[in-house]
Design brief:
Strand content: 5-15%
Shape: elongated
Helix content: 40-55%
Number of helices: 19
Mean pLDDT: 95
Largest sheet: 3 strands, antiparallel
Length: 478
Amino acid sequence: MRVRFAPSPTGALHIGSVRTILYNYLFARQREGTLILRVEDTDQDRLVAGAIDSIYDGLHWLGITWHEGPQEGGPHAPYVQSERLPLYQKHAQELVDKGAAYYCFCSKERLAVLRAEQEARHEITRYDRHCRNIPAAEAAERAKVESHVIRQKVPDEGTLAIEDLVHGRIEWQANTIEDQVLLKSDGFPTYHLAVVVDDHVMEISHIMRGEEWVASVPKHLLIYSAFGWDAPPMAHFPSVLGPDGKKLSKRHGSTAVSQFREDGYLPEALINYLALIGWSPGTEEEIFSMDDLMRVWKIEQVQSAGGKWDKDRLDYFNGVWIRKLSVDELVRRLEPFVPAEWDREVLKRIVPHIQERMKTLKDAAEQIRFLFTDDIGYESNLLIPKKSDRISTAEALARSRAVLGGIEPFTADLIRPMLETLAEQVGWSRKDLNGAIRMAITGRQVGPPLYESLEVLGKEKSLRRIEMAQELLAGGRD
RNA sequence: GGCCCGGUCGCCUAGCGGUCUAGGGCGCUUCCCUUUCAAGGAAGAGGUCAGGGGUUCGAAUCCCCUCCGGGCUACCA
């Protein structure tokens, strides 16, 4: 059992391709198979520097590992296609020798004109096989000196078919297929030649990739049979779509795994969420860790219809997974999202109180900022409850300060009853009293529970902030 | 245009001929809990199973047609 992930280093690791990689990963791990990472960089024009690092970073962060690859090595190294050129060239040549492919000397200009003419006549735009009938010997001679490509010689008749693991039987008539370029004039193979050769040479037992590849299957099938190889079983997974139903891309927002990481998403959440686009266990369970998925995921349950990206749902899963973390672990995960100068002991004390209030790790800082800085600017009006006024609010705060000042030790348990009775004495609802105090000490209307916030902030700072609030109120309208 | 692949609540989906008066989750609404906000609990709105024909005692489930959406149609992957 050998399966591969075959990303192209044309940009950051895409969230949609992660779903495909995940399914490959699960499939192989369940069968104790071997996972191969192969970099398909046959288009030199589209290479993006750093893309391979991004793939490695992203997959490692998500907890996906593999056995053979560019950095890991393996029995079929190298695992980067641009380093395997002679292999493809040799095979392309072999196809020419077998009469399954031919040299084509048509210029890109001729091809462009041809296409334009076909379009003008509303004909199918495809290569007119202009070079297909050049005598072999003559073509071979010209190939020595002329720029050329090698094209696949597609038969005029016949049916090509696969039994796709997710779609079932799919078939094509040979006469609908173009004489595909296999080897480009720069000596690089096209995707079509490279995948087939590599999948065969690397002994890939199951080809599982995105749905966008089904159209190229018949071309691959032809190559397999020209070489006399058996095509392995294939599965084409449905696409992850944008909200508009088109393939998910940057214009729908960020698609880079690294971006989700920076935005405070947990790898557990991303994996859980992604696994459920296009697959369902058939039960009502839906919270799955990677280990759970390893247990229950089945390729037979993979859907054939594409699924749309739903940010709200991802956020929900992120919340679920944040809540499942231990406090220590959450503190660890929060590390990159919290300024280095913030006291980690304080952080650890407040985290239990914001754990169920975070949608993302990134949300935390704003909620607890008041504990680490005195810079909590707000408008004094916000201190005043709806049905109250400046004078009474100032008085309520003064009394709060007096009450709080007498509490020792300064803990939530002791603060609670004192403020509750104070509210009664003042004749305010707890909501109003606490709201005013919350604004005074945090500068915000919402946040972690008040009594705990006071405790963690500490008596001294709490009193000082309430005092500042009183001064603000006394200062009149601002 | 051609070739393929799809089409169940706004979204992710269960469903594989009768148990479906179509189930769950997200989101939304209301209520409860409650020191704010969340979280949690409860209830609810939301689906002519794309449409139309068949087949069958019986169809979301099988067949055909139509419509709609998507992918591919490059010396890109």
